[in-house]
Write a structure and sequence with these properties.
Helix content is 33%, strand content 27%. By secondary structure, it is α+β, with helices and mostly antiparallel strands. An 8-stranded mixed beta sheet has the order 4-3-5-6-7-8-9-10, sandwiched between helices. Strands 12-11-13-15-14 form a 5-stranded mixed beta sheet, covered by helices on one side. The longest helix is centred in the N-terminal third of the chain and has 21 residues, at 3-23. It starts with a helix and ends in a 7-residue tail after the last helix. The structure holds D-MYO-inositol-1-phosphate and calcium ion (2 copies). One calcium ion (CA) binds next to strand 5.
Length: 257
């Protein structure tokens, strides 16, 4: 299932990589969006290319992109983050990816995260497992926090506010903790190199592709409160075995009864 869509997504991320790499580690112009987050010409060109390609290949499908919003209607929506990790991209750091998901009736069924500067392409189709560069990946079987590698988005997000204490305690309890953010933190969990990834705020284009890959690799992805992912809400990805324990640590500050 979704064989044609998977082949199409592979074509899209290859074209996206060619565009992105032509800007990467050059003097590129970074603009600020209304929400003050950065965007480059590469982000805009990639998303425009994907919109055109979908309109040509699957004219009945809609596209929801970070830079241009929703175009079209229908139960099938291609959800696109042209460059996830734009700050890294703009700083010449290799941790960025193009994220593409196909959602059907709101459920992500196919996910792809292509990180050409890392040489890593992750993909998954619901029910068919997850792969890194074509080889199956699987979450770890670490069941104790004291053996776990915990990764997170930027540390500034965790320095203040109600999540600070549970975060500190989690870091203390873990074997290692690093802030390897963006899509990559979740992919490290999916491939068993880390056990948990925490993120305070994600939009749907940040998590749709990631969620299919994580779940097909045997992991779990929810809000920090243990509930379903929400546009603009927090995210917790784990190998599954550590999920309840981490949710429990945040329960009080997430307002869960
Ligand atoms: C960012 C990443 C990051 C999240 C930020 C997003 P961008 O996306 O998804 O993980 O913490 O909230 O803005 O702007 O690099 O696509
Ligand atoms: Ca993003
Ligand atoms: Ca982006």
């Amino acid at each position: 299932v979704f064989e044609q869509e998977l082949a199409f997504a592979n074509e899209l991320v290859e074209r996206a990589a060619a565009i992105a790499l032509s800007y990467f580690q050059t003097e590129l112009e970074v603009q600020r969006k209304d929400d003050l987050t950065p965007v480059t010409e590469a982000d805009l060109r990639i998303e425009a290319m994907i919109r055109e390609a979908v309109a040509e290949r699957f004219p009945g499908d809609a596209v929801l992109g970070e830079e241009g919003g929703l175009g079209g209607t229908g139960e099938r929506v291609w959800v696109v983050d042209p460059i996830d990790g734009t700050k890294n991209f703009a700083d010449g750091i290799q941790i960025w990816a193009s994220l593409i998901a196909l959602t059907v009736d709101g459920r992500p069924m196919l996910g792809m995260a292509n990180a050409p500067a890392l040489g890593e392409r992750y993909d998954a189709v619901r029910g068919s497992g997850a792969r890194l560069n074509g080889r199956p990946i699987r979450v770890s079987d670490v069941a104790d926090l004291s053996d776990a590698m915990v990764v997170s988005s930027g540390l500034k997000h965790w320095c203040d506010g109600p999540r600070r204490e549970p975060f500190r305690e989690l870091v203390r309890a873990a074997r290692r903790a690093r802030a390897f953010g963006d899509f990559w933190g979740h992919m490290l969990v999916a491939r068993g190199a880390a056990e948990a990834m925490l993120e305070p705020t994600l939009r749907v284009w940040d998590y749709a592709a990631v969620q299919v890959i994580v779940e097909e690799a045997g992991g779990r992805m929810t809000g920090l409160d243990g509930g379903p992912l929400r546009d603009g809400g927090s995210a917790l990805t784990t190998n599954g075995l550590l999920h309840e324990e981490i949710v429990r640590r945040f329960r009080e500050v997430e307002g869960v009864a």
